[in-house]
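Re: Re: ligand-bound prediction request (bumping)

Still looking for help on this. To restate: I need the protein modeled with L-MYO-inositol-1-phosphate bound, output as structure tokens. Inputs repeated here so nobody has to scroll up.
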Amino acid sequence: MDKKITPDGIAARTLAAVGIARAAGELQRRYFSDRASIGTTFKGPQDYLTVADGAVEKLVVGHLKSAFPTDDVLGEETGGSRDPRALWVIDPIDGTANFANGIAHFCISIAFVAEGREEIGVIYDPMRDEMFLARRGFGATCNGRPMKVVTNGDLARSQVELGWSSRRTVQSYTDIVTKAVNAGASFRRAGSGALGIAYVADGRCDGYAELHINAWDCLAGLLMVREAGGRTNDFLGAGGLGDGAAVQAAGPAIYDALSKVTGIA
Ligand code: LIP
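Reply:
Sorry for the wait, this slipped through. Here it is.
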């Protein structure tokens, strides 16, 4: 089946994704305000799952399939297609550990991939009411304000976020932390890759790197960083849509120096 999406089709999907992300954020906020309703379990070591993850993903997928029935969908919790011709990639709650523990640093992340390229990225933080948005070729915004990466950075004076998960060894993580600090950088790990990468796009953080991350955590933010003048690794080219891959996003001035720390090209 021909799935080619026209520019008007991308525009319509962009508008719809923003509205759906806002509705998803409202549902997140309702669960977050009633902690007894969250129902936390674990998918693996330090890999949280809550009742809210499933409910939010069901809401988002329902709206997308209703509006765009021929598009494919890949969700963190319910899985789905990996066909990159016309594919929505969704993380219903990115920052689930924070969400489950009452820390207000989480978001909904929605990306749309067409013909193997990220075309739309939407990340909504309902607790700060911040809508991060990018459409390929049209720039990136936060609540309508244009976003720009840090362009004059220096790794020795930078703040970088180094994501962590049990999907890679502790040693591999502590190695890059040690190298980053020895290079003069300050590092953080806030538990939401999507928000961490969106903050790079908005110049709040100089760079983000993680040795393994899933597509639903990062695709929306990677488009935002590129549209905001930053550099990213070729996550999709590294097979990231399948089983995830390493990710790096940073301003142009520190990207290569950060690659020497992380080993991510
Ligand atoms: C999270 C990612 C983060 C990673 C966490 C976790 P989740 O996604 O955004 O980058 O370091 O371990 O995977 O599980 O909150 O959707």
